[in-house]
C-alpha cells in the first residue's frame, strides 16, 4: 500500500450503521419498580427541578419545572412513554409552575405570582386567563395581586377551580364557571368568581368531583366543601391540626387528603367523616393521585412513595431511589404512573411501582489504589449501572464508605474508609437491598515507611543526592525537606526533585541553593494516596561544616547484644546512644567512632538517638530493624506472571516463612492476599497492577504489622500482563505456543515457543474423525494455560479438552448446538479469567454469548446479544478498551465497513465505526491483538497480492493511528497467527509459506519489526496451524 493513501473512506455508510442498531425500547419498560427517566442534558452546573406532572394516557405525559440556577421555567412532553422527553416551552420570565392538568384537547398550568395559563396547541403557545374588568385595575389576578396558586382542579375544559393565597394573608378559592351570570355575585370577574376567602388560612389543594362538587384543603387541617357549584362553601372537620397539601376526589363521596408529617385522611361519605389512615412515615406528603377507591399513590419529602391497592387500609412504601422531595404524581392505570421531584427527578413505572429493580453492577472504581491511612481522605468514583439513590450504601472491603453521592444511575462517589489493607471488594447496595460487587476493586497500600538514608548529612547549599531506603515507596508523588526551625518547628520546607528506583528506594536531589538554611531536617515523602513517610534526621551543614557529624551507622539490624558502630567526626567524650528507646551500653568511644551494645528487646523498626552532652543530640528516625530473625528466602515463584486485573494464585517456595505470626507479600509494592502459609511455601492471590515486570517481596511482620526482619526480594520476579497477552499459551510461561493439526489424519501437535525458538515437538493426540474441529484455544478453566474447544461439524456436539501443556487432562462434553449456529470467536467477555464462546446464526445473524465456567455456561450465562445484518462478519475478538474483557471486531463482507463493539459480558457498551476497506481492494484483517503492549488490541492487515502489512492502532474501539509494518512480496508467505511469542506483552506475527512449509516469526514492538527469524519447516501442507 502506498503510505500516502488513506486507509479509510471519508464517510461511514449510515445505512449500514443502522443495521447494527435496534430501536431503543421505551424507558418506562426497562426494569421493574420506579425507573429513572431523563430530560435533555443541561450544561454543567445546571439542574432541572420538577414541580408538576400530568399524563393523558400511557404514552402521552407532561411535566413542568424550572432550571437552576437560571430559574427558567419550562414545560416538557413525552409521546413515547418517557423514552424521550422534549422541552416544548421555556421562559425566563414566567414564575414557578406549581400545578398542571392536561386533557386531550387543552392543558392548564398554575403557579406563583398569579400564573394561570392554558394551551391548545401542545404547549407551543400559552394564554393567560383573565377576567373582563376594564382598566384599571387591568389584567385580573385569579388569586389576588401578588398571590399564588397551589391547587388546581379541572372538572372539564371550561370549569376549573384554583386554591391558593391572595398575597395579603387570606386563603382563596376561585372558580371558572362561564354559565353563571356576570352580575351574580358582585365579586364576579366573568368567567371567574372569588368563592371562598379564609383569613390567615392558606389553601394548598383542591379537588372536584363534578362541575358542582369540590373540596379545598389547607393550613392546619382546614377542609372546605361546596355542593352547589360554588354558591356556598362550608367547613368540614378533618380531625387533624396538620396542614393538608393535596386532595383527590374519586367521586362525590370518596376522597383522600394528604399532608404534613405523613398525614393521610379518607372519606367515603363526601367529607361528613374524615378517617385517618396509617402511612408509617413522618415525612410530609405533598401530592396524591388516585385511580379509583382502591388504588392510589402519595409522594413527599425524602423520596417517599406510598401505594395502596386496598383503599388505604395498608399503604406500602415503594422504592424511589432518591432522597429528594417529590413534588408531583400522576397515574393513568394500575400499572402506569409518573412521579417528579427536585434534582432532575423523573420516575416512571410500568408495573405499579411494586416490581424489582435490576440489581446494580459495578464495572470500575477509580482510583483503584488507595492508602491504608490516606489523609485527606480519598473520594472514589464508581462506574456501573442500576445505581439508585435513597438509602444507597457502599462498602469497601466490608467497611461502610461515607459521603455517598449519586451522580447518575451509572455513576456515584463515596469516601474511601481507612484502616484496610490489601485487595478488597467494592459493593454498592440500593435501598431495595439488591447489591452489586466488583471483586478485587480496590488495592489498599500499607503506610509507607523508611529504613534509612545515606548520607546522613550534607552541605546546606546542596548539589547532591540522598538515597532513602524503605518500603512502599513506589507511589511517592512528592518529596520535600523540612527544617527544625522554631516558631513553629518544621515550618520551613522545600519541594525537591526525586526518582523512584523501586518500592524499596528513592533518590532525592538537593539542588544547589545558596540560601537554603542549615540545621536538622526531615525528608517528608507523600504518596499519590495521601500517605506520608519520614526520613531523617538529615543534617544540613552550614558553610565550613558542623560538629559533631554522623557519617554512618552499621549494622542497622540486630537484637540484644548486637554491637552497633556509629562513625563520624567530632564526637565529644560524653557521647552516648540509645536504640529503640533503651540506652545502649558504650563499648568504645573516640572522636570519630562510637561502638555500643544494643539492649532493647523490641522487634521491628525503631530510632537511633545520639546524645552528645545531655542537652544536644540527634535522632535518626526508624533506621534500625531490631530483632534476631533472619530474612526469609525465596527460591521459586510459580507461575511467574498473571493478569493485570489480579487474582492469580501464585505459589512462592522458600524457607523461613513462619518465624512470625504474620507475613507480608507485595508485588511491585502492592500487597498480595496470603491464602495459605507453611515454613517453606506461601500461596498468595495477586493484586491488580499495571502491566509490566515487578519485584516480589516477602517480609516477616511484627505484632504492629511492621517489618520484623530484612525482606526477601526477587527483582523482576513477576510479570503483570494484559489479559489479551495469553494467546495460545499452553504451558503458562506467558509465551504463545503453536498448535498444529493434520487435515486428514487428525494428528495434533504442539510447539512450545520461546521467542522465535521452538522448545520441543509435542505430540498431543490423534482425532481421526475430521468432523471434529478445534474452534477455540482459550483458557476455559482459568488456570493460566490454554485449552482446546472442539466442535463436531456433523453433529454439533461440543467437547472441552482441559490441557496441561501438551497433555489433555480432562475431556468434558459441553453440549450439542444446532448446526445453524457457528462459533465465531472465543474470549473472556466477562473478565473472570475464563474463556467464553461467541455464537452466531449463519443465516439470521443472531449473536449469542455463552459466559463459561469451564466446560459449562454459568447459570444464566447463555445470553442473546443482538441480531446483526448477516453481511457483517466477525473478524476477531480482543480487548479493545483495556478493561480486560473481550470485545468484537466486525467487517462487512462486501462493503468493507469495519465496526467495533466494546462489551461487558454479553452487554454491548458501545459501537464505533472504524473505517472502510473493501475486501475487493485486497486488504484483509489477519489478527486482532495488542501489538503495542498498552492492553488494548489492534488490527493487523495484509494485502493478498502485494504482501503489504499494516497496523491499525485501536483505542476504546476507535482508530487512533495506522502504520506500515513491512512487505513480503512472496505472497506464498501468509500470516498464520498472532501471539506473544517472547512474553513481552506485545503481539508478534507468525508466518507460514503455503508452498514450502517454512515457518517464521516476526517479533514486534507496535508497528516496528524487531526481528524476523526462521523457526522450522513443515513441508506437509496438510498440517495446519490452529489460530
Write the SSE topology.
Blueprint: H1 14-20, E1 35-36, E2 47-55, E3 61-68, E4 72-78, E5 86-91, E6 97-102, E7 107-111, E8 116-119, E9 127-128, E10 148-154, E11 160-165, E12 170-176, E13 188-189, E14 192-199, E15 203-208, E16 214-218, E17 223-226, E18 234-236, E19 244-249, E20 255-259, E21 264-267, E22 275-277, E23 285-290, E24 296-300, E25 305-308, E26 316-318, E27 326-331, E28 337-341, E29 345-349, E30 361-366, E31 369-371, E32 379-385, E33 393-396, E34 399-400, E35 402-408, E36 411-415, E37 422-429, E38 435-445, E39 449-454, E40 457-459, E41 464-471, E42 476-483, E43 492-496, E44 498-502, E45 505-510, E46 519-527, E47 532-541, E48 549-554, E49 557-558, E50 563-569, E51 576-579, E52 582-583, E53 585-589, E54 593-597, E55 604-611, E56 617-626, E57 633-638, E58 641-643, E59 649-655, E60 662-667, E61 670-671, E62 673-677, E63 681-685, E64 692-701, E65 712-721, E66 738-742, E67 747-751, E68 753-754, E69 757-758, E70 762-766, E71 772-776, E72 788-792, E73 797-804, E74 807-816, E75 821-827, E76 836-841, E77 846-853, E78 856-867, E79 872-878, ...
Describe the structure.
- With 1027 residues, this protein is mainly beta.
- The protein contains 1 helix and 91 strands.
- The strands form 22 sheets. A 5-stranded antiparallel beta sheet has the order 10-11-12-14-13, with no helix packed on it. A 5-stranded mixed beta sheet has the order 31-38-37-33-34, with no helix packed on it.
- A hairpin with a 3-residue loop joins strand 53 and strand 54.
- It is flat.
- The two termini are 26 Å apart.
